[in-house]
Design a protein that fits this description.
eight-stranded mixed beta sheet, three-stranded antiparallel beta sheet, 9 helices, globular
Length: 333
């Protein structure tokens, strides 16, 4: 009599890649998120171990909003207060932080050159926290900074060293997009922030639209990538002409509402986003907004080059231009 044994081999299926943006992020079918850059962390440091002092603080523990503060050396802060720059990092709304080496080193260089106090904000990232989470966090951070406007806030560095007559917002790429949207909020008559924003610096801003313009027509591969990105980070409003990502769209609010008095737009010749930045500059110039807007294009360079190659001459030139912007007075009107 023969006997047979039936055996079944159970093989667990390996999660597959559901979405991928090369060199940025992968999302797997089991929901796991793998960030492909910007996950390293470097510690803050204090003078004299570093020319620029830095420290980390929590702004909102419930939503995990934090920041790294930067302060120039003591001789720069003696007996006078300095402009304050609230900075929002780039990274397609889904990677990077103020604590990784690239942004720590960049803010250190910028603070040293410009002689400013800086608050580099950590906001929640997509896809775990899709937009508008980053905008909400940025507004919370701005309110936290504004709570120091009468020199009685929770952070001594801001009470003692920040000049709240010279408040600037700045950011690159997605961070520049955040800057625009937050300054538009600040300009709304129903918003009572408690401080005025003097200027906004938008470096290689992440703006987009459904109809290709300029060099986008020739950059089909890059355009396809950017077209896929916005629905990934903002699934609730996935259209590329959404006012958050296309402030020049026909139905977007007038840029005349922009709640600051100076704007500096930086673009790069080899950046697929450059034509959107230039269009923003042109649209703001003719919007009826009563401030002063400037633009600077870096030849031969690509997107966010100045963040990742601080030692190149053109990065140093751009940082110098930003430093000059942060030390300008309010326009005489």
């Amino acid at each position: 009599m023969e006997s047979s044994t039936n055996s079944t081999t159970i093989t667990d299926e390996q999660p597959q890649i559901a979405q991928e943006f090369p060199h940025i992020i992968r999302v797997f079918t089991d929901g796991r998120v793998e960030r492909l850059r910007g996950t390293d962390i470097v510690p803050p440091s204090l003078y004299p171990h570093s020319v620029v002092s830095s420290k980390d603080i929590t702004l909102d523990s419930q939503n995990n909003i934090a920041a790294r503060l930067f302060l120039p050396p003591p001789q720069s802060t003696h007996n006078h207060k300095l402009p304050i720059v609230i900075y929002f990092h780039g990274g397609a709304f889904c990677v990077n932080s103020p604590f990784n080496a690239a942004y720590h080193n960049y803010l250190t260089a910028l603070v040293s050159k410009a002689n400013v106090v800086a608050v580099s904000v950590q906001y929640r990232l997509a896809p775990e926290h899709p937009l508008p989470a980053a905008y909400d966090d940025a507004w919370t951070a701005l309110q936290w900074v504004a709570s120091h406007g009468k020199n009685n806030g929770p952070e001594p560095w801001l009470n003692e060293h920040a000049d709240f007559e010279r408040v600037f917002l700045a950011g690159d790429s997605a961070g520049a997009n955040i800057v625009h949207n937050i300054v538009m909020m600040a300009g709304h008559p129903d918003m009572n922030l408690g401080i005025d924003i003097l200027g906004a610096c938008l470096s290689h801003p992440y703006f987009w639209g459904s109809t290709p313009i300029g060099s986008e027509v020739l950059e089909l591969g890059k355009r396809e990538l950017v077209d896929r990105l916005w629905p990934f980070i903002c699934p609730s409003m996935p259209e590329s002409d959404n006012l958050w990502v296309n402030p020049m769209a026909e139905d977007a609010p007038s840029l005349a509402w922009l709640g600051c008095r100076r704007v500096f737009v930086c673009i790069a010749e080899k950046d697929v986003l450059k034509d959107r930045g230039r269009l923003y500059y042109e649209a703001l110039s003719r919007s009826g907004w009563t401030g002063v807007v400037e633009i600077e294009e870096t030849e031969g360079k690509g997107h966010a080059f100045h963040i990742h190659d601080l030692e190149c001459d053109k990065a140093k030139e751009l940082i110098t231009s930003m430093a000059e912007f942060f030390n300008r007075d309010a326009p005489p009107f």
